[in-house]
Each structure stands twice: as structure tokens, then as C-alpha cells.
Design a protein that fits this description.
The chain is α/β, with parallel strands linked by helices. Among the domains are: 86 residues, no CATH class; 81 residues, Rossmann fold (3-Layer(aba) Sandwich), CATH 3.40.50.11320. Helix content is 36%, strand content 17%. It has 16 helices and 13 strands. The strands form two sheets. Strands 1, 2, 3, 6, 7, 8, 9, 10, 11, 12 and 13 form an eleven-stranded mixed sheet that branches. A two-stranded antiparallel ribbon has the order 4-5. The radius of gyration is 22 Å and the shape is globular.
Length: 485
């Protein structure tokens, strides 16, 4: 670290310290540690290899953030990339939240951190960053993980690892990641912990949560998991399929005739619903119509950039019928945001700042890895039994759904929740934010479900202020506002 940069950083931290100290009540025994547990001046003198100090285009902020790798398997050379943002205020008092995106094969950095809930959003030309005033690190310390290997900057040096990819494999690597990450950041070892995510993370998150709960029987492995939060999650294949086709019909995407054929010929409870040619042709018609619009957001424009071919590639994968799993519709809401993220994260100076490369030998970053679709070995057909187990274990579970998403539509989630058969504690009613109806919600015994009115698949993109309000209520264990205030 050169003298001028060190002096500037010292001065910046001193100013931030004085501002924070004046704004907050004194805390006895506070040493103002960094996230690693070391005093700030030690971090500066000795250097923390994961501390991000020179990210190109970064807005000025008062919190620290860290990025880098955690090796989850030394023998095979498997390493997962993370990006961690301290809370904007009082990080030592606030919970730790792990965010996962889905796919499988899509980046939590590219979607969650860059487009949705992180403090730095990629600018529209991919050349820089802009500050997100509704970042979730206002309420918690946020940890974004690119998982599994092959996603984003995460990798393995052993090609056979990719043959074993599946839900269990992903959960085990994420679990190992957490324990090794706590060695890097020991002050978070016993911190209140939550997991959040969206889309195919609807499988990742419950499977990981169950693994944590099971392993917590060993005191040395204990993680203080309190609950999880999921948006538009894949949950149970049969219910998700029914919801997808019913939603397409109810929103005039397909004809009455197509819907009747699906109802008559498709058995989504079977191991192979595609054994019926009539079913296959009718479902193909659903996706043919969705190809014309944005399945993630029915009422917004599509990206017309000729560099975005996700719709064509998705359609080809769907029609290949090589799997009886839910369709791997990779990613989330676009219009063109994916292209901006790709441009930004493939910059040499960005990769160097994030400790991915030396700025010379670059890693090829993409927002989704399409090849994982073909090699994915196992997907849980349903995680509803895991929900039942985790509710009994006392975890707090909230599910939210943007109601203009056709990919994992609100109907799919409602069908899944109906299958759980939970008693209703507080019946269906609106919830409000800034005196407007943000959606509707219902509280079950052990689970809360909320909709976002007018939001697509990646809810925080469409409703940033409302999603932050829901996140805050989730963490505090408070019901959403049910009166107009």
C-alpha cells in the first residue's frame, strides 16, 4: 500500500469513525473492529487480502466490503467466490444474511448484489457503479455467494466435480464455505444468521438450512440459523408446473384450448409427464408464446440488444425435453441489465479489485452458466417435507412473490403452500408501504406469505423500497403493516 493511498484511507476511516461516533450512542468496550475481528488500524498496517479498497467507479460509502475465495475442497481445488458487505451502521450488532441466486448456474453477484439488493448497482453502460439507497445492508451484514462451482468466478480444478453437481452437492459445499468463511471473519461465528434467495434458490436454501440444523447437534459446528426468506421460489415440481400453466392461461398468454389440452393430458405428479405427446405439444405452445415477451415480467419491455440470446437458448433447452425437472429458465429480469453486468465483471481492473485475478490473466465471467443445465445431476422434486421439518424446528420462514412473474408465478407458490396444509393464523389481507397497497399477505402457523403488486421475478428490481421494508419486518419478526398509515 503506497504512502499517499494509506494516508488517504487513514483520513477517510478517521472521518467515518468520528461521524459514526457522533451519530451513535457509545458502546462500552467497543474496539471498532473490522469484519475479520481485527482493529481497523491493524487491518491497514498488516493488510487484509480480501478487503476491497479500489473498486472502479465505486460510490463513496462508510462501510467496508470484502471479496475473494474460500476453498471448500483442497484436494480437488474447489473454491467459491463471495462478496461481503458490512451493514451500513452498527455491523457488530446486526445479523448476518447469506444471499443465494438460482438457475441453477446463475450468479448471486450478478443478480442479487448487482441488480437487486446490493449497495452497488452496475450502471447502464457497464462502465461503473451507482449507489443503491435501498440496499439490504442497511438492515444486515450481507454475504453474496456464487454457488455452486462453475457459477460466476467460482471454480474447480477437477473436471469430474461437475459430473456430481446437484442440490445436495451444492448444499454441502455451501456448508463447508460457511465454516471456512467464519475462520476469516470470526466475529460472525456466533452471530444471528439467516439465509435468503430467489428462484431456484427455493431448492438451495431449504436444503442448506436442513443441513445446518442437522449438523447443529455437534456444538463445535453450531450455526445460529434463525430462519430463511425466499422470493418466487421453485418449491415442488408438480405444483410449480400447474401454477405455471394456469398462470399463463389466466393472464391470456395461451388460449383456452391449449389450457384444456394440458389439463387433460399432463400428469405433473408422474415421473415423466412428457410421455404424452399431447402434453408435450401443449406445453411447448406455452413457452412458444412466452418467447415473445419476458416470462419474468409480463408487462415490461424485452431487451432488443442482439447480444442477448437468452430467450432463444432457453426455448431450445425447454424443447429438448431431456429432463423432467422444472425448466431451467436461467436468470431473472433483464432488459439488458445482464449485458451491463457482463461488461463490468470482465474488466481487468474490476477483477483485480475483487481479488479474482491479477488484472492480466482474467477469468471469463458470465451471469449464468448454461452448461450446468445439462450436467445437473439431481434436483429435489419437492422441498415441502423439508419445510415441515424446519417449521417444527422453530425456524422463521417467509415467502414472497412478485405477482407479474410467469416463471415461478404466484399461483405456483399458492399451490405449494396449500399442499403444506398449515393452519391459517391471520387471513388474507393487504399490506401497505408508504400508504399504498404493496400486495397481500397471509400468516400461517410457522410461515408468512406475501405478494408484491406489480413486481416480476426479481422483486427488488421492481419494488426496491417495498422489498427493503419486507426484509426489515422479516428480521424484526414483525407483521407487515396491515393498515394505511
Amino acid at each position: 500500500m503506497d504512502f499517499v493511498f494509506k494516508a488517504t484511507l487513514y483520513l477517510s476511516l478517521l472521518v467515518n469513525f468520528l461521524v459514526s461516533a457522533a451519530a451513535e450512542p457509545p458502546v462500552l468496550g467497543r474496539r471498532w473492529p473490522g469484519a475479520s475481528g481485527k482493529p481497523l488500524m491493524d487491518l491497514l498496517e498488516n493488510g487484509d487480502p480480501d478487503l476491497v479498497t479500489d473498486l472502479p467507479g465505486q460510490p463513496n460509502v462508510t462501510f467496508r466490503h470484502y471479496a475473494g475465495y474460500v476453498t471448500v475442497n483442497e484436494t480437488n481445488g474447489r473454491a467459491l467466490f463471495y462478496w461481503f458487505y458490512e451493514a451500513t451502521t452498527r455491523p457488530e450488532e446486526k445479523p448476518l444474511v447469506l444471499w443465494l441466486n438460482g438457475g441453477p448456474g446463475c450468479s448471486s453477484v450478478g443478480y442479487g448484489a448487482t441488480q437487486e439488493i446490493g449497495p452497488f448497482l452496475v450502471d447502464t453502460n457497464g462502465s461503473g457503479l451507482k449507489f443503491n439507497p435501498f440496499s439490504w445492508n442497511k438492515e444486515a451484514n450481507m454475504l453474496f455467494l456464487e454457488s455452486p462451482i462453475g457459477v460466476g468466478f467460482s471454480y474447480s480444478n477437477t473436471s469430474s466435480d461437475f459430473v456430481n453437481l446437484g442440490d445436495d452437492f451444492t448444499a454441502n459445499d455451501a456448508y463447508t464455505f460457511l465454516h471456512k468463511w467464519f475462520l476469516k471473519f470470526p466475529t460472525y461465528r456466533n452471530r444471528t444468521f439467516y439465509i435468503a434467495g430467489e428462484s431456484y434458490a427455493g431448492k438451495y436454501v431449504p436444503v442448506l438450512a436442513e443441513l445446518i440444523i442437522d449438523k447443529n447437534n455437534n456444538p463445535s459446528l453450531y450455526i445460529d440459523l434463525k430462519g430463511f426468506l425466499l422470493g418466487n421460489p421453485e418449491t415442488s415440481t408438480s405444483d410449480d408446473w400447474r401454477g405455471l400453466v394456469d398462470y399463463a392461461w389466466s393472464h391470456a398468454v395461451v388460449s383456452d384450448e391449449t389450457h384444456r389440452i394440458i389439463n387433460r393430458s399432463c400428469d405433473f405428479n408422474s415421473d415423466n409427464p412428457w410421455s404424452s405427446d399431447d402434453c408435450s405439444v401443449a406445453v411447448a405452445e406455452v413457452f412458444k408464446q412466452y418467447k415473445e415477451i419476458d416470462i419474468y415480467s409480463l408487462y415490461t419491455s424485452v431487451c432488443l440488444s442482439n447480444t442477448t440470446d437468452s430467450a432463444d437458448r432457453f426455448y431450445e433447452l425447454m424443447m429438448s425435453r431431456t429432463s423432467n425437472m422444472m425448466p431451467r429458465i436461467l436468470g431473472g429480469y433483464d432488459p439488458c441489465l445482464d449485458n451491463y453486468a457482463k461488461a463490468f465483471y470482465n474488466r481487468p481492473d474490476v477483477q483485480k479489485a475483487l481479488h479474482v485475478s491479477d488484472g492480466q490473466l482474467l477469468r471469463n465471467w458470465s451471469i449464468c452458466n448454461y452448461t450446468l443445465f445439462n450436467v445437473w445431476k439431481y434436483s429435489f422434486p419437492t422441498v415441502l417435507p423439508i419445510y415441515t421439518k424446519l417449521i417444527k424446528a422453530g425456524l422463521k420462514i417467509w415467502i414472497y412473490s412478485g405477482d407479474t412473474d410467469g416463471r415461478v408465478p404466484v399461483l405456483s407458490t399458492r399451490y405449494c403452500l396449500k399442499s403444506l396444509g398449515l393452519p391459517i393464523i391471520k387471513s388474507w389481507r393487504p399490506w401497505y408501504h408508504q400508504k399504498q397497497v404493496s400486495g397481500w399477505h397471509q400468516e400461517y402457523a410457522g410461515l408468512t406469505f406475501a405478494t408484491f403488486r406489480g413486481a416480476g421475478h426479481a422483486v427488488p428490481i421492481f419494488k426496491p423500497s417495498e422489498s427493503l421494508a419486507l426484509f426489515s419486518s422479516f428480521l424484526l419478526g414483525q407483521s407487515l403493516a396491515s393498515v394505511r398509515e
